[in-house]
Amino acid sequence: MNYKILVINPGSTSTKISLFENRSEIFTKNFEHPIEVIEKFENVEEQLQMRKKLVVEFLRERDFNAKDLSAVVARGGMLPPVKPGAYEINDLMVDRVINRPIMEHASNLAAPIAYEIAKEAGVPSYIYDSVMADELTDIARISGMPEIPRTSASHVLNTRAMAIEAAGKRGKKYSELNIIVAHLGGGISMNVHQMGRIVDLISDDEGPFSPERAGRVPCRDLINLCYSGKYDKKTMHRKLRGNGGLRAYLNTLDAREVQDMIVNGNKEAKLVYEAMAYQIAKGIGELATVVKGKVDVIVLTGGIAYSKMLTDWIVERISFIAPVDVLPGENEMEALALGALRVLRGQETVREYEEKELASIVI
């Protein structure tokens, strides 16, 4: 049986959609959202109808009838911790990511867009391998402040897919290797996969700065800045997420522009860009201790992994730990589609998102 699956994946400055028929991608579109457009909205949630309209109009331009779909699958947003795999989108999930998200993030828009399109088409909608998929060990949850336990937030979808690919390249199952994966994108996160489970991670606010995020910054100085009277809460959040990292130092979040600056002799750009690579390497070294140095392979993935300048700097510092695979790109659209396809074929069981899952979560 042939299944047509619409995939929706919003990022901080883009909305990507693809149509798959079974495993084959029929068409894809990446809508770029210029910074000047994004900044007109007070928050991410206000972008919902703007982004949905682009998707619907594109399908209409392609003369594609949404009623021909078998399912719509979306990137999982900032939910309380959930299990890996598929969840059917429902009203509770939509309310959570729009009105009560764990944090503001473009991925929160994916489920509502998919849900609305799927309802109109009369087909099911899913999220798959949510950003907040949680398999952390108990010891990994301890932060040093009882009021702030560590939670699971990383680019699970792509990192898990690339870990599976790296294992397959070696003739192994995902469950047979210890793999560290660093996702290098607008936000940078990394995680360690121990025999098929993501047992620990470094989220995008715990580790390296990225094109638009500040990453881990000195806590005492951050507290002092928060109480300096210079900035309100919203501005401080934006300094950490959206206006941090490369954008704060170099006034751009495009790594290609930074590389051009370096080629043209900009010493500050080289220092900042190499510092990002340095911090990524430090994070990978940190995660290697989780499995006591028994790392089978390290994977560098995400859009910025196309930057050979950056990955060369990283590999130079981490190659002593384990072999390094550079698998650039996000690869998220295929991973989402194949997850939904397994559900439609009955090869995986879809979970129901229930309010009782939230009962033990302290926010």
Summary, kept brief:
By secondary structure, the chain is α/β, with parallel strands linked by helices.
Count of folded domains = 2
Reported for the largest beta sheet, the result is:
7 strands, mixed
Mean pLDDT: 93
Q: Could you say which structural class the secondary elements and strand pairing correspond to? A: alpha/beta
Helix/strand order: EEEHHEEHHEHEEEHHHHHEHEHE
CATH homologous superfamily designation of the largest domain: ATPase, nucleotide binding domain
CATH A-level architecture of the largest domain: 2-Layer Sandwich
3D shape: globular
Termini Cα gap: 44 Å
Fraction of residues in helix: 25-40%
| Annotation, overall tally of beta strands | 12
Characterise this structure.
The chain has 363 residues and is an alpha/beta fold. It folds into two domains: 4-133 and 332-358, Nucleotidyltransferase, domain 5 (2-Layer Sandwich); 138-328, ATPase, nucleotide binding domain (Nucleotidyltransferase, domain 5). 36% of the residues lie in helices and 19% in strands. It contains twelve helices and twelve strands. The protein has helices at residues 35-38, 48-61, 91-99, 110-121, 156-169, 219-226, 233-240, 245-250, 255-263, 267-288, 308-318, 332-344; strands at residues 4-11, 14-21, 24-32, 71-75, 86-88, 125-128, 178-184, 188-194, 197-202, 297-302, 324-328, 351-352. The strands form two sheets. A seven-stranded mixed beta sheet has the order 3-2-1-4-6-5-12, sandwiched between helices. Helix 9 (255-263) crosses helix 10 and helix 10 packs across helix 11 (308-318). The longest helix is centred in the last third of the chain and has 22 residues, at 267-288. The protein starts with a strand and ends in an 11-residue tail after the last strand. Mean pLDDT is 93; it is low at 357-363.
